[in-house]
Amino acid sequence: MTTAQRYSFIIDWFTRNMPVAETELNYSNPYELLVAVILSAQCTDKRVNLITPALFTTYPTVYDMATATAEEIYELIKSVSYPNNKARHLAGMARMLVEEFDGEVPSDIDELQRLPGVGRKTANVMASVVWGKAAMAVDTHVFRVANRIGLTNNSKTPLATERTLVKHIPEELIPKAHHWLILHGRYVCMARRPLCLNCGLREACKYYNSKVKNQE
User: Fold this and answer.
1) Which of 78, 139, 176, 206 is catalytic?
2) Residues 131-160: what's their mean pLDDT?
3) Is 121 a catalytic residue?
4) Backbone φ/ψ region at 70: left (φ over 0), alpha (ψ -120 to 50), beta
5) Does this chain's domain 3-21+136-215 share its CATH topology with 30-131?
6) How far is 34 from 39, CA to CA, in rounded Å?
7) According to CATH, what is the number of the domain 3-21+136-215?
8) Domain range list for the chain
């Protein structure tokens, strides 16, 4: 199967079998999503969703969070991974949004990356989810799944994965494709024990056809 055929098969399968693919983080505006995505780094969405209701009750707007200290924020997020760093990032992010962006989350990826705690992945999530831009956020799931099924070829970095995926996936599908790969990695193509026998992508999957198929 050629690269073009593999992409065609996989995109067609997801289009038919996962027509709706969205973030599992709970949010109601760009500020809340940005906070949730910062918290979700190396942490599950389920854990983040347990934390954010109280956090947003205490700091319902970015202006409220901008008045908080990192220590105050820490008390509300201490059950996430790396809470000290994330508390500092959230406090600094909120202050910068108020001081430099009039309290509005910017839609530009470069501007987003100026904010504390916001790297390229988080910026791409915001750009794709909130503004529907053709930005491919590469987290650990996307990186692993793309390499494993053969959408990338032993890609060494998230940026290399991003560039390859954007090159081959139609622009209008890129925001949804990000969630396709995340959800597939979260529930089917897991890191340690991928559920290959339950996967509809077997026919096109490099990993299955090279390492699993002959062992059945």
Assistant:
1) 139
2) 93
3) yes
4) alpha
5) no
6) 9
7) 1.10.1670.10
8) 3-21+136-215, 30-131
d(CA 89, CA 157): 24
Asked if pLDDT for residue 135 goes beyond 90, the answer is yes
Separation of alpha carbons 29 and 130, rounded Å? 8
Contacts (Cβ under 8 Å, ≥6 apart) of 214: none
Residues 6+ apart with CB under 8 A from 3: 150, 168
Using alpha carbons only, how large is the chain's radius of gyration in Å? 19
Q: Considering the candidates 12, 121, 206, 211, report the single residue annotated as catalytic.
A: 121
Phi-psi region of 54 (alpha: psi -120 to 50; beta: other; left: phi over 0): alpha
Q: Is the pLDDT of residue 52 over 90?
A: yes
- pLDDT above 80: residue 126: yes
The DSSP H or E segment spanning 28 is none
The residue-averaged pLDDT of 1-24 equals: 94
What's the rounded mean pLDDT across residues 169-179? 94
For the whole model, what pTM was predicted? 0.89
| CA 193, chain centre distance (Å) | 21
pLDDT of 210: 84
Give the residue from 21, 33, 46 showing the smallest Cα distance to 125: 33
In the annotation, is 206 catalytic? no
Residue 82 region by backbone torsions, left for phi larger than 0, else alpha for psi between -120 and 50, else beta? left
For domain 30-131, give the CATH number.
1.10.340.30
- Reported confidence tier of residue 204, pLDDT bands at 50, 70, 90: very high
